[in-house]
Amino acid sequence: MDNLILLAKLFDGSVLLLDPPHNQTYYSDSINSQQKVDIDKLTRKINLVKVKNIYEIFIFTSGFVLRIKISKNTTIFFVVFQQENLNFFSLETNLIRIMSDKKILCQALYAAYTKKQTPRKQILFRKLDTDFSTNYDLLLNDHRLGDISIISTNLMMAINDSDEKSFKIFLNQFINLPINGKRLSYGDLTRGEKNVLISYVSIIHRNIITHGYPTNLSLKLQSVIVNKIELSSHFTNLKKILIDLGWLYFREMKKFNQKHGLPTADIIKNYIDAHTNQKLTLNDIAFTLTIPINNLNPIFKEKYHESIKSYIIHRKIEEAAQLLINTDLSISDIAENLAFASVSHFTSSFKHAKNITPKKYRNRLGIS
């Protein structure tokens, strides 16, 4: 808790550590008695919302709450009363900026408490299903933070992180939003569809520039796309166009991240870390990351001193160990979730790595 308090003092925040039966709370020096009551009500309400991600942010009109899920029974709430500027230039652009900043804070809180490497996970923008209000106007259902803003922001974050799994989820949610209503021009459906597409392209354009994509290349790409949209006489399938545009920008940002971001060995490692729930082969990795298959192992071994196959097993076993400790999932469910060929394959792999069977490993730690 001491390390969490140091971060709280740095950001003038309050920390609630839920780790039954030893729950702990630290309130910022700037928090008054009424705000302490508000924080308690707020975190209790958020605690009732089903966890969907390790890092989650709830934004309200007077600040924000971060929820970091450390394990099945341990959660960190980090509350800051700080007005965020959501009106400047573009709501979506500012939400993306805020979420990028808060993702780093989530990782710092996770590392400060666990003293372990932070999971490379996207921060998820959440909202409560019912309004929460106090004398300090804590409105988590601010009308500006509706489904369109939330889903489009999560979609942009997935593009930034080249997170294909999250991208597919949020793209599917985005294309099924009621965007053919007020955002379309009355009396001119085609003009309205063009407005939707151009707005969509503009948001993505601003987003990828903010995250390092060269401005000249983005402007060139945007110009080509907008000209094609304006020259079209009609659109037979608006959703398909939205999907195609989303994938176009996703691939462009992914190529940029690969060439100008992390070293290739780290890109391979991060891809494996993010896909332990899938059956991974060298062919799959080479195809997805556009790296020649013969180069994969030499590049990876040079930095991490083990083969990709060995690292995949190692990561799956470590994740299995955490699931055995922190969840009630059956051994067969864990084997399936981590894409092992069978329960027996999982059991033998686990025993080879840990010198103990999964069942005995769970029982030794007192998990029934």
List keywords for this structure.
368 residues; alpha+beta; Beta-Lactamase; Arc Repressor Mutant, subunit A; 3 domains; six-stranded mixed β-sheet; 15 helices; 6 strands; globular
Can you describe what's shown?
58% of the residues lie in helices and 8% in strands. The protein has 368 residues and is an alpha+beta fold. It folds into three domains: 144 residues, Beta-Lactamase, CATH 3.30.450; 105 residues, no CATH class; 107 residues, Orthogonal Bundle (Arc Repressor Mutant, subunit A), CATH 1.10.10.60. A hairpin with a 5-residue loop joins strand 1 and strand 2. The radius of gyration is 23 Å and the shape is globular. The protein starts with a helix and ends with a helix. 28% of the residues are buried. About 8% of the residues have low confidence.
Show the helix and strand layout:
Elements: H1 2-11, E1 14-18, E2 24-26, H2 33-47, E3 55-60, E4 63-69, E5 75-80, H3 91-114, E6 123-126, H4 147-160, H5 164-175, H6 189-210, H7 215-231, H8 238-260, H9 264-274, H10 282-289, H11 293-304, H12 308-326, H13 331-337, H14 343-354, H15 358-364
Parallel strand pairs: 3-6
Antiparallel strand pairs: 1-2, 1-5, 3-4, 4-5
Helix pairs in contact: 3-4, 3-6, 4-5, 5-8, 6-7, 6-8, 9-11, 12-14, 13-14
